[in-house]
């Protein structure tokens, strides 16, 4: 199987300057290639493809040996393929009748990754294997950069990417042929209900807390954004204010990821089969503001709910859970969540009045009382097991 691993880089000051220059030159290459395509089609009706632009790279590098010529040819091809992918996605959306969204030029804050498509071609993972304690990655034009490798790398390193997040630099490895290590069977199954009060509630009654990382940082974020609003565009002070806001958001993102990994590890270690809701988070967090002609209702309440859902990080958690379940040989089943919170898990009676409050469930038919999230998780588990049984019988 394939896995991606992300490690913090520890560049020296000179290496950080070189990494910044590498990222900037790749951004300019991306924008120049986009302008080339736009101009060729607007002036002559000619569609420029990836192959045409890749063939011109040799001349570009030869004319700019101190700039574009410093970096790996393969990494520059990967940047051009990234643009080509954006155009292919654009035409696919046009063909499907969706809002197309033409590829845009990348500003300094919107281009943060450079990729090397093959380990050994302009880059080398573990470039100093004889070093007794540290790990290094070699990048053409940058040198041997120290890596904070916090866990072993298994499988064969296929691609290497460098990503900037605020003031931090990371290396991202894509590894093939990663050995799968199935966990021993437990014989246990569980349904999980996603929530805001608790991130996860299982059908066994176990609740995983929702730390609300964004809410905890809201005060400092508000101060930082007010400070940013008062800075003049293009000034050095504004750049520092932007960096402060980005650093706070980055910390929240890392906290959310860390909690999601730990919660997913617990579930994968405890259950052989995990059933979850097939949530459409984009639809659930759509704004209720409406239009001028037809304004929405309860806009403030819906905005608060949307913020709480996004702060909980349901999508991040379910993605991580899926990857860990696959790696551990566990079965993950997604079911339609419609009606699970209003259905009695004992008698299957469905009524809006069954759910008295956010936390309390009492069936108006049979009188069954339970925590609302536990009741929903039991219904989710039952639906998932029915789907598995139907699939096995087919």
Automatic annotation (TrEMBL):
Q: Where is the Transposase putative helix-turn-helix domain?
A: 1-43
One Pfam entry for this protein is HTH_OrfB_IS605
Judging by the UniProt lineage, the source's domain of life is: Bacteria
The Probable transposase IS891/IS1136/IS1341 domain is annotated at 181-287
Query: Cas12f1-like TNB domain: from which residue to which, for each copy?
Result: 314-380
Q: Which UniProt keywords apply?
A: DNA recombination, DNA-binding, Endonuclease, Hydrolase, Metal-binding, Nuclease, Transposition, Zinc
One GO molecular-function entry: endonuclease activity
Q: What family does this chain come from, according to its entry? A: In the N-terminal section; belongs to the transposase 2 family.
PANTHER family reported in the protein's UniProt record:
RNA-GUIDED DNA ENDONUCLEASE RV2885C-RELATED (PTHR30405:SF11), TRANSPOSASE (PTHR30405)
Name of this chain's protein: RNA-guided endonuclease InsQ/TnpB family protein
Organism in which the protein naturally occurs: Nonomuraea harbinensis
């Amino acid at each position: 199987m394939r896995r991606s691993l992300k490690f913090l880089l520890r560049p020296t000051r000179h290496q950080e300057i070189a990494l910044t220059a590498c990222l900037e030159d790749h951004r300019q290459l991306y924008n120049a290639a986009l302008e080339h395509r736009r101009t060729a089609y607007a002036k002559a009706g000619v569609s420029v493809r990836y192959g045409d632009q890749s063939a011109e790279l040799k001349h570009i590098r030869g004319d700019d040996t101190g700039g574009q010529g410093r970096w790996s040819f393969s990494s520059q091809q990967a940047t051009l393929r990234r643009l080509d992918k954006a155009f292919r996605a654009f035409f696919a959306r046009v063909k499907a009748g969706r809002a197309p969204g033409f590829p845009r030029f990348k500003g300094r804050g919107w281009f943060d990754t450079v990729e090397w498509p093959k380990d050994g071609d302009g880059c080398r993972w573990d470039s100093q294997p004889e070093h007794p304690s540290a790990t290094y990655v070699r990048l053409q034009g940058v040198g041997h950069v120290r890596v904070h490798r916090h866990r072993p790398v298994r499988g064969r390193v296929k691609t290497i990417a460098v990503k900037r997040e605020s003031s931090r630099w990371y290396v991202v490895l894509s590894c093939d042929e990663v050995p799968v290590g199935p966990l021993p069977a437990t014989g246990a199954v569980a349904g999980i209900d996603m929530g805001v009060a608790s991130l996860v509630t299982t059908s066994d009654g176990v609740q995983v807390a929702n730390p609300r990382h964004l809410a905890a940082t809201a005060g400092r974020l508000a101060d930082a954004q007010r400070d940013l609003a008062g800075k003049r565009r293009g000034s050095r002070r504004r750049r520092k204010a932007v960096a402060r806001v980005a650093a706070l958001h980055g910390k929240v993102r890392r906290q959310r990821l860390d909690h999601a990994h730990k919660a997913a590890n617990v579930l994968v270690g405890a259950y052989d089969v995990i059933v979850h809701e097939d949530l459409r988070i984009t639809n659930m967090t759509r704004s209720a503001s409406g239009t001028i002609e037809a304004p929405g209702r309860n806009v403030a309440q819906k905005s608060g709910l949307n913020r709480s859902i996004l702060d909980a990080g349901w999508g991040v958690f379910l993605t991580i859970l899926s990857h860990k379940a696959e790696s551990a040989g566990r079965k993950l089943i997604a079911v339609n969540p419609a009606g699970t919170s209003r259905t009695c898990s004992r008698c299957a009676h469905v009524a809006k009045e069954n759910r008295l409050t956010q936390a309390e469930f009492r069936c108006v038919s049979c009188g069954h009382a339970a925590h609302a999230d536990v009741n929903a998780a039991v219904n989710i588990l039952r639906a998932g097991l029915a789907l598995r049984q139907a699939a096995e019988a087919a």
